[in-house]
């Protein structure tokens, strides 16, 4: 019996609050992909494992919140050549709208580079909440002289039909010089715009 599946384990511990609004935590993870599992079996269990340790620091005060975390990769497929991942995020609730932003760097092979940026605005209007988002990924492959950039803009509309039920609509557009199709890993879709739209009832 066999199947292609991902395997993941993660344990997180949050330390007692050191100061009002300040929270520190540490997490330990181990992740194996289906392809990595096959590689691990081929190498008698000596490959395919991605082990990581993540440190978290979060602070909130009233409408303001900010956080930082860094992930140290202890092992990647038995080689240990993965760059640390760094993330910074923050939000501010204006009452009429909530603004959020975040950046991420790292999390790729040491000879490559990846930078991500996200921006979002959420506006409550009675039973209707509208969310606007933007995200970009700039990636430079190992040994490449140029970078690829993908950007996504999105609109989310959620209308509360009751306390538990909402009508939700998501409308997204992705374009850029990289492969913008998540359903394909080929380069044939480079530079083409992709759309993802859905309407559903959430309960």
Strand order, sheet with most strands: 1-2-3-4-5-6-7-8-9-10-11
Count of DSSP E strands? 11
Q: What fraction strand? A: over 45%
What can be said about the biggest beta sheet? 11 strands, antiparallel
Rounded to the nearest angstrom, the distance between the terminal CA atoms is 37 Å
Mean pLDDT: 80
Residue share in helices? Answer: under 10%
Which blocks of ≥5 consecutive residues have pLDDT under 50?
A: 1-5, 36-47, 179-188
Number of helices: 1
Q: Output the structural class.
A: mainly beta
Q: Provide the gyration radius in Å.
A: 20 Å
Which outline best applies? Answer: globular
Order of helices and strands: EEHEEEEEEEEE
Structural commentary:
By secondary structure, this protein is mainly β. It has one helix and eleven strands. Helix content is 4%, strand content 59%. The chain starts with 6 loop residues before the first strand and ends with a strand. The protein has one helix at residues 34-42; strands spanning 7-14, 22-32, 50-61, 64-76, 85-93, 98-105, 113-125, 128-140, 148-160, 166-176, 194-202. The chain has an eleven-stranded antiparallel beta sheet. A hairpin with a 7-residue loop joins β6 and β7.
In brief, what are we looking at here?
The protein is mainly beta. The protein is built from 1 helix and 11 strands, in the order E-E-H-E-E-E-E-E-E-E-E-E. A hairpin with an 8-residue loop joins strand 4 and strand 5.
Q: What does the secondary structure layout of this molecule look like, with pairings?
A:
Blueprint: E1 7-14, E2 22-32, H1 34-42, E3 50-61, E4 64-76, E5 85-93, E6 98-105, E7 113-125, E8 128-140, E9 148-160, E10 166-176, E11 194-202
Antiparallel strand pairs: 1-2, 2-3, 3-4, 4-5, 5-6, 6-7, 7-8, 8-9, 9-10, 10-11
């Amino acid at each position: 019996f066999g199947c292609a599946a991902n395997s993941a384990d993660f344990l997180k511990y949050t330390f007692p609050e050191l100061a009002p609004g300040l929270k520190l935590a540490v997490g330990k993870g181990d992740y194996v992909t289906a392809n990595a599992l096959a590689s691990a079996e081929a190498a008698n269990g000596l490959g395919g494992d991605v082990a990581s340790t993540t440190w978290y620091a979060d602070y909130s005060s009233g409408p303001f919140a900010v956080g930082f975390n860094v992930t140290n990769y202890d092992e990647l497929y038995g080689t240990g050549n993965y760059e640390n991942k760094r993330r910074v995020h923050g939000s501010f609730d204006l009452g009429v709208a909530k603004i959020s932003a975040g950046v991420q760097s790292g999390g790729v092979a040491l000879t490559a580079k990846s930078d991500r940026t996200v921006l979002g605005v959420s506006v409550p209007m009675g039973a209707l909440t509208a969310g606007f988002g933007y995200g970009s990924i700039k990636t430079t492959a190992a040994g490449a002289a140029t970078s690829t950039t993908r950007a996504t803009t999105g609109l989310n509309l959620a209308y509360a039909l009751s306390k538990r039920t909402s009508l939700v609509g998501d409308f997204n557009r992705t374009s850029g010089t990289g492969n913008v199709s998540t359903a394909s890993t080929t380069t044939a879709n480079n530079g083409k715009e992709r759309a993802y739209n859905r309407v559903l009832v959430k309960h």
